[in-house]
Specification:
Blueprint lengths: L1 E6 L23 H9 L8 E5 L3 H7 L4 E4 L8 H11 L5 E5 L2 E3 L2 H11 L4 E5 L9 E4 L5 E5 L8 E8 L4 H10 L6 H12 L4 E4 L5 E3 L3 H10 L3
Parallel strand pairs: 1-2, 1-4, 2-3, 6-10
Antiparallel strand pairs: 4-9, 5-11, 6-9, 7-8
Length: about 230
């Protein structure tokens, strides 16, 4: 398995002059430093790959021991194309991927490992609450995800940006990511693979763990309260 961190975006909503994954919390650690520390508690450093773009040298200098894939179109593409670059590079693997702005309790990963070992594709979701601007999801009659996007109506919860695609499903996701428009989020490719190729993707409820995406200043303040140490 490969773990792909999507860290190519400009992250303009937070207003930093540097890549959002390098945003430092009050505990003294950057978002990406926390991600790397938590992931390497359970996996090898060699398993981690980072897709970079905006001011890539700052990330690469901060984490010189990681492997990188460069998205030169970072300023005119979205996460579907960053993920595509990672999937094409590691098409023979299963892939756990996450957005570079997610902070989370490391025990969340421990919760996901049994499903990774089964090669069961999933999206991690928080069913406690869901905002209008968040990526939402619904389920089919068999309990698998059938729609996932910001436009979903009556969503059951929020997809929080930590996902897994099994080796069997990966070629289908790759094809659908190829079809995505430049500014599509990766959820578009996943939704196409679900609806057209009938891959079965579980909604993994991680509501019991602290986890959030840091998009705005209020998210950063919330993260500082959750992750004081």
């Amino acid at each position: 398995m490969k773990i792909i961190i999507l860290a190519a975006g400009i992250g303009s909503r937070l207003g930093n002059p540097f890549p959002k994954p390098l945003t430092r919390l009050r505990n003294g650690k950057s978002i990406m430093q926390m991600q790397v520390e938590h992931l390497t508690t359970f996996f090898s450093l060699d398993d981690l790959v980072v897709v970079v773009g905006f001011k890539k040298d700052l990330i690469m200098e901060s984490f010189p021991d990681l492997s990188y894939i460069y998205n030169p179109s970072f300023d005119r593409t979205n996460t579907s194309k960053s993920l595509l670059r990672g999937v094409k590079k590691h098409r023979d693997s299963s892939i756990l991927w996450l957005n570079g702005d997610v902070v989370f309790d490391p025990q969340l990963i421990n919760h996901l490992i049994p499903y990774i070992e089964k090669d069961q594709s999933f999206v991690s979701v928080n069913n406690a609450a869901v905002g209008e601007e968040e990526v939402k999801y619904t389920l089919d009659k068999n309990g698998f995800v059938n729609a996932i996007s910001k436009e979903v109506v009556n969503g059951l919860g929020e997809a929080i940006g930590i996902n897994f695609i099994g080796n069997t499903d990966l070629p289908l996701l790759l094809n659908r990511l190829e079809e995505c428009e430049d500014m599509d989020y990766f959820e578009k490719g996943l939704e196409l693979a679900i609806q057209r190729d009938k891959i079965r993707v579980m909604a993994m409820d991680i509501s019991q763990f602290d986890c959030l995406e840091v998009d705005f200043e209020e998210d950063l303040q919330h993260a500082n309260k959750l992750f004081k140490e």
